[in-house]
From TrEMBL:
The keyword Plastid does not apply. It comes from Lutimaribacter marinistellae. It is a multi-pass membrane protein. It is found in: Cell membrane. Belongs to the UPF0718 family. The chain crosses the membrane at residues 21-39, 51-69, 90-119, 139-164, 219-236, 248-273, 294-316, 322-340. It holds the Pfam family ArsP_1. Keywords: Cell membrane, Membrane, Transmembrane, Transmembrane helix. This is Permease.
Length: 343
């Protein structure tokens, strides 16, 4: 009898959790289209399916690369960027920030360990600003949705923003700012432990059963993660292209000048979803009249101010450092958008 009384609750919790997933949102969206505008249901599904198939090759390569980096333990190479002179640390931290294969919870103990061990805040800030903007999967998905010029521009902007933030913080620290940036932080260990700061990568991971298992689990989990979010993104893009008037988009974030770019950066902060959903949505917005510079500003500001990124910063550092992080992110997004628009 005890099992019978517990099963309904478990089933209800399972159903509730499923309703929060992208798959459930896709079903709800398509059901709404079928009910309210059945003539466009087929076109919506076809649009999303073709776009997802086009990006499929990038998804496959991205998850293979990410699984390889995790299985080999390549993240230990990132820690070496924080050794040596401060200027060298800033340069390498900004560069490696876009290569780090960390999940959002692994970044927290990694950064906390660096600060606790005495790594300068300037180098940590360079890493923190560039890391949310680009990584191998994001680069490939951005290229699939928006083209390689935009993807390469975003990668360059990520490194440039890291350098901008790192050297700005270095200048402020020389004036006595940020003497004690770190809060009293105790890692919660939400996904085990953070990456090791020592050791060497094992490039031939297939020789060790544990690393082969890591590769398989990372491949499956990341593949399903990207598939569900991109499927939702392309369904939303189909709705955007079909139902949002192009004149409205062009009026708000279209055209030349600084105002549309600044508007896109400010809107991108609260509206951004994640680095995998944003490229397809921006592709739809650009078809409707959004300028390339505004799209770049939206993507950069949103990635820096995404909930996981802000939560990581807030959990580790004091409010003054948090405000500096956001200010540098928004200013860098606007500058990146202006420069990308000019180029």
């Amino acid at each position: 009898m005890a099992d019978l009384t517990q099963n309904p609750g478990s089933a209800w919790r399972g159903a509730t959790e499923y309703l929060k997933t992208p798959w459930a949102l896709i079903v709800v969206i398509l059901a709404a289209v079928a009910l309210l505008d059945p003539a466009n249901l087929g076109a919506t599904i076809t649009f999303a399916a073709k776009a997802l198939a086009h990006t499929g090759q990038y998804i496959l390569f991205a998850v293979l690369l990410l699984a390889y980096l995790k299985a080999t333990g390549a993240e230990v190479m990132v820690a070496r960027a924080f050794e040596g002179r401060e200027t060298r640390m800033i340069l390498l931290a900004a560069l490696f920030g876009g290569l780090a294969p960390f999940c959002s919870c692994e970044v927290i103990p990694f950064i906390a360990g660096l600060l606790a061990l005495g790594a300068p805040l300037s180098a940590v800030m360079a890493f923190w600003l560039s890391s949310p903007l680009i990584d191998p999967p994001t680069l490939l998905i951005t290229a699939g949705a928006l083209g390689w010029p935009f993807a390469i521009g975003k990668a360059v902007a990520a490194v440039a923003l890291g350098l901008f933030g790192g050297f700005m913080v270095k200048a402020l620290m020389s004036q006595g700012a940020f003497a004690n940036p770190l809060k009293n932080y105790k890692p919660a260990g939400c996904c085990g432990c953070g990456p090791k700061l020592d050791g060497k990568p094992h490039w031939k991971f297939w020789n060790e059963p544990a690393r082969r298992q890591t590769f398989r689990s990372e491949f499956l989990s990341n593949g399903l993660f990207l598939l569900k979010w991109l499927a939702l993104a392309y369904v939303l893009e189909a709705l955007l292209v079909t139902y949002v008037p192009a004149d409205l988009i062009a009026t708000v974030v279209g055209g030349e000048g600084v105002l549309p770019i600044a508007t896109a950066a400010l809107v991108g902060m609260p509206a951004y979803l994640n680095s995998y959903v944003a490229p397809p949505l921006l592709a739809g917005l650009m078809e409707q009249g959004m300028s390339a510079g505004a799209a770049m500003a939206f993507m950069i500001a949103g990635a820096v101010s995404s909930i996981p990124a802000m939560a990581a910063v807030w959990s580790l550092v004091k409010p003054r450092v948090f405000a500096t992080y956001l200010g540098l992110g928004v200013a860098g997004a606007i500058l990146s958008g202006i420069l990308f628009q000019m180029i």
